[in-house]
Amino acid sequence: xxxxxxxxxxxxxxxxxxxxxxxxxxxxxxxxxxxxxxxxxxxxxxxxxxxxxxxxxxxxxxxxxxxxxxxxxxxxxxxxxxxxxxxxxxxxxxxxxxxxxxxxxxxxxxxxxxxxxxxxxxxxxxxxxxxxxxxxxxxxx
Length: 141
What we know:
This protein has a single domain (2-138), classed as 3-Layer(aba) Sandwich (Endonuclease, Chain A), CATH 3.40.960. It is 46% helix and 18% strand. It contains six helices and four strands; from the N terminus they run H-H-H-E-E-E-H-E-H-H.
């Protein structure tokens, strides 16, 4: 198993289009309130798995990523309901799917208004009850 994760991590961090490390650090410093709250709930394996925040996978940055379960979590705010952003989100989702990564989209409001519900949904996704979740704006989440 160790070789699998090492090769997966190498593939994730040796990209054709590499986002500068400085940009990743800026994203970590300028997190939204929902991202701060989610990181507090996910860090130190509090949700049952190790997550990294602002994880770079080729030319995409994921809000949170668990290598062990190949699970990405994206927090979606209002900007994700704009047509241009929805197209970028769809492209990101399609690309991640080709890598075998499941994308779990969660609206910012869920993290802020129902932290226990957020952790429950993440645990459910970790235990295998996930696939790619639909874009929240399609359903008014």
